[in-house]
Amino acid sequence: MPLPACISRRSTGSIRTAFALFLSLSLSAAFAQAPDAALYGQGEKLFKGNCASCHKVDVKMTGPALKGAKAKWEGKGDIYAWVQNSQAYLKTGNEMAVKIWDQYKPTVMTPVALSKEEIDAVFYYVENWAPPVAKTEVKGHVGPVDEGSNSWLWLVILALLFLVVGLSLGGVKRSLASAVSEAEGKGPLPETTRMQRFRAWAWEHKVFMSFVGLFITVWVILALWDAAWVVGVYGGDEVPHYKPEQPILFNHTLHAGKADQGNLNINCQYCHSSAEKSKHAGIPSLNVCMNCHKAVSAGRTPEGTAEIAKIYAHIGWDPDKGQYTGKEEPVRWVKVHNLPDHAFFNHSTHVAVGKLECQECHGPIDQQMDVAEQWSPLTMGWCINCHNVKEVKMDGNGYYDEVMARLEGDTVLGHRELKQYLEDGKITVKELGGWECAKCHY
Amino acid sequence: MRKRDAIIGTFALGLAACGSNPNSPGVEYMPDMYRSPAVEAYVDYGQDPYYFTEEKAAEQRERMSARKPVNGTIPFSMDADKAQFNMPYPYPNTPEGYEAAGAQLTSPIAMTQATVDQGKVIYDKFCQHCHGATGQGDGPVVNNGGYPPPGAYNGPLKDLPEGKIFHSLTYGRNVAMGSHASQLNKEERWLVTHYVKYLQNGGKLQREPMADAGAATTN
Fold first, then answer.
1. Which of A106-110, A322-326, B17-21, B118-122 has the highest mean predicted lDDT (pLDDT)?
2. CATH number of the domain enclosing B141
């Protein structure tokens, strides 16, 4: 391989290092201000692979910030020995080492197998590092579209326009008729109010008017009937979705959205981990937030940072000291999905056995729901419609082996009539009792 | 004139009722069908229609609905084979405990392709977003979120013994990784550990000898 400049002492890693060097060189050359881009690239690679899980460049995390560390150690001790094996170096009693240990103990730094040159490269990267320019926009944020109310307003305006035009045309027509009658010598038409004229006209067209009346009555009854169906329904196509403001403005899209749109793509069940084990999907307790937010105190926007600060306030975390203060305050989340008590619903049945995706009921929560909302109507009609068409996932589920054997068996246990369920080649939830009242109401 | 005002008023009221305030769930007829006195998780009983006085409602509202089990609680297991997973974890959350777990603790489950597959399912839900699909430490939280990258399973963490992996899952590790004990029970933690071992081995089942280099050479 023609890579003459890169023959290092560590022969096994040399080709990889050279390749990485070449890669990072070509990648970072454009924006790295560092004079020695090759060294910078090597340092970056080493830093990310060996140091970054505990050290940040500019702020302290598990260990101290690395910027300026080399200067601090200048003339006070052997920073290379300290980095390579801090516990061994601590035993020499070096003052600087003892001071840092006192600050960070009992966390032990894992010994790092880096050569002096490599450590130099890391510090070269650290000293020349500049904070990245903040991303201004996160893709995948699609707010709710407000078209509906607008088009409705235009319809009303149009109707009013027609009314005005119609009325003025009627006025013109009447003035003309009056003028004609005057010209014919019959004198002007008698002054009557609009209502009187309308009544007279309606009396002349009795049959037509009774049809119109019937039509309006039926229409009103139907409209009321339809409206009654969505009373107390907080989701679905018919009504505006229930979308309450939560005490902490958690952004579902950012956390669970697709990775290729710049989102974090965390599985729903990471936080709602009881969805496959319990009746409830569960609201994650704040310790789950802190699994990441111990290390992430800054959001992508100032508003986001303020929301993260709310988590800290509730769980009692002091981000400066990196400790819990013990002052806790439960978060009063607002419950979004509310089923009546007489309807039984179990998440684990649907997630673990039915293998439904969360989005099938909760909507595109990872795509366009910065604020969680009730997507589906959660009415009984909605439930049993799905039970009617969803196929039961029989494969790999021992419970259904017996069910399948009974369905397929000829005379076994006298279930011959069950064969009709297999005629269309699929077993729906309904066919296994998903429409029985007592499945959900007991 | 009165009549017309009344009609306009009714119309306006109707419009207001149809307005979309996302903070309001809307009309509830028969509220006892929505909120029953039977105890359920995540229900604000302060809204319960059965409590007529504001004091009663306020008292209910102050009650926490999600709580931690009492310290030292041991879950009940129907399956005798799984009872072992419910025993308390003996190693403390200290650097010494971490080393001790690494040296002594081994998986009570025999590692097979089946346990690795089960572990992968859990890994994809609970680990992948940081550690990456193949354990390179390049998940979307790291790539898109700028999170401190964890070490790669075929890199710095290649020789991490399973006891330490389990210990880290239980208590968390340093600042960047939190405890996953509230999300995964011990059996699930061991299954994930199997999958991590599998990734460390470069996608091979064979179990590595323990971290102890001496033990490896005597084989």
1. B118-122
2. 1.10.760.10
B95 and B194, same domain (yes or no): yes
Q: Kindly state the greatest CA–CA separation across chain B.
A: 105
The continuous run of DSSP H or E covering A324 comes out as: strand A323-324
B66 → closest Cβ in A233, A243, A285: A285
Residues B104 and B49 in one domain: no
Question: How many Å apart are CA A58 and CA A127, to the nearest integer?
Answer: 10
Whether pLDDT at A382 is above 80: yes
B57 and B101, same domain (yes or no):
no
Out of B140, B147, B179, closest to residue A296 by CB: B147
- The pLDDT of residue A407 is 76
> Hey, is A194 helix, strand or coil?
helix
Chain A neighbors of B38, CB-CB under 8 A: 341
Q: Which residue of B has its CA nearest to A240?
A: B20
* Interatomic CA distance for residues A372 and A368, integer angstroms: 9
Residue B122 shares a structural domain with residue B54 = no
> Burial code of B100-114, b = ≥16 C-beta within 10 A, e = fewer?
bbbeebebebebeee
Structure tokens at B91: 């190693």
**How far apart are the C-alpha atoms of A11 and A17, rounded to whole Å?**
10
Tokens of A359: 């989005």
CB of B102 within 8 A of CB of B116? Answer: no
B166-197 pLDDT tens trace? 999 999 988 889 999 989 999 999 999 999 99
CA distance B30 to B168: 51
Q: Are residues B102 and B193 in the same domain?
A: yes
Q: Show the low-confidence residues of chain B (pLDDT under 50).
A: 1, 15-18, 208, 210-219
User: What does the pLDDT average to over A106-135?
Assistant: 76
Tell me whether residue B23 is in a domain.
no
Q: Which domain holds residue B40?
A: 31-62
Residue written as token pair 């990889």: A16
* Identity at A175, one-letter amino acid code: S
CA distance B202 to A250: 37
pTM, two decimal places: 0.72
Contacts of A29 (CB under 8 A, 6+ apart): A37
Which CATH architecture best describes the domain A4-128? Answer: Orthogonal Bundle (1.10)
Query: Does the pLDDT at position A346 exceed 90?
Result: yes
pLDDT of residue A146 exceeding 60, the answer is no
Residue pair A371/A245 in contact (Cβ under 8 Å)? The answer is yes
Task: With a cut of 80, say whether residue A304 has pLDDT above it.
Answer: yes
With beta carbons under 8 A apart, name residues in chain B contacting A263.
140, 144
Q: Give Cβ neighbours of residue B95 (< 8 Å, ≥ 6 apart).
A: A106, A107, A108
Residues A295 and B178: their CA atoms lie apart, in Å, by: 10
- Please tell me the distance in Å from B108's CA to the nearest CA on chain A: 22
8-state DSSP, B145: T
**Phi, psi (degrees; rounded to nearest 5) at B130:** -105, -50
Region(s) of chain A under CATH 1.10.760.10: 4-128
Count residue pairs from A and B with Cβ separation < 8 A.
Answer: 152
Q: Which of B47, B62, B77 is the last residue of a domain?
A: B62
Instruction: State the complex-level ipTM.
Output: 0.82
| Cβ–Cβ under 8 Å, residues A120 and A38 | no
pLDDT tens digit string along A293-302?
A: 988 888 888 9
- Spatial distance between the Cα atoms of A86 and A262, rounded to a whole number of angstroms: 38
Arithmetic mean of pLDDT over chain A: 80
